[in-house]
Each structure stands twice: as structure tokens, then as C-alpha cells.
Amino acid sequence: MRRVPRGPVTILRAGTATGGYDAQGYPVIGADTSTISDGWKVAPRSSTETALNYGQAVVTGLTIYNLARVAILSTDRVVVRGETWAVDGDSAAWHNGTVVNLKRAG
């Protein structure tokens, strides 16, 4: 059986409020953060088809696995092999690692 290589992904997390406000009174949001996380295996997820008024839309996705516990939020985005994906639901901690479903980022 062929061994699937492990590789890095980049976790992108939206910035948070800095405590300051702009001229219109809106909170100032800090810069997004970017963290490289190593040890991930990548697997394709089956596509789903959604009936729309104008035809079919195919949504493709990935599932990534790591043998370490990694904190990934449902609001994060993940760069896998140069392509940015949105986290699809909550990440799952299992007995020996983390599983995250991804969908194409819009």
C-alpha cells in the first residue's frame, strides 16, 4: 500500500477588534493572522449536487487529517496546496488527532 505524504497547510484566521473605533464609530479590526501547521494528510470529499432554478451546482471539498490536536475554528480558512478553502462546519477532535472538512472558499 502506498503511503500518503503529510504536508503543511496555512490556517488563516480573521482579525479581531482592536478596541479602537474609526471615524464613523465602527470597531477597528486588526489584520488577519496566518499560521503554518505541518503534518496534514489531504483526501478528496465526494461532491454534492444542489438543484437550482438554472441548473446543477457542484460543490467539491477536501477532508484534512492530522495526528495532532490542532485548533481550527469554523470561521477559519485553510490554504491547501496553494488553494484557499473555507472550513465546512466544526473541526473534530478524535482519539488521535484532528479532522477538518473543507469547501471551496467563495
Can you offer a commentary on this structure?
This protein is mostly beta strands and 106 residues long. It has one domain: Bacteriophage SPP1 head-tail adaptor protein (Thrombin, subunit H), CATH 2.40.10. Helix content is 0%, strand content 63%. It has no helices and nine strands. The chain has a six-stranded antiparallel β-barrel. The radius of gyration is 17 Å and the shape is globular. The model has no long low-confidence stretch (mean pLDDT 87).
Number of domains: 1
SS strand fraction: over 45%
Can you say what the CATH homologous superfamily is? Bacteriophage SPP1 head-tail adaptor protein
Provide the low-confidence segments as ranges: none
Mean pLDDT: 87
Largest sheet: 6 strands, antiparallel, barrel
The largest sheet has its strands arranged as: 1-4-5-9-7-6
Overall body shape: globular
Order of SSEs: EEEEEEEEE
**Rg, Å, rounded:** 17 Å
List the helices and strands and how they pair.
Blueprint: E1 7-13, E2 17-21, E3 27-29, E4 33-52, E5 55-66, E6 77-80, E7 83-87, E8 92-94, E9 97-104
Antiparallel strand pairs: 1-4, 1-6, 2-3, 4-5, 5-9, 6-7, 7-9, 8-9
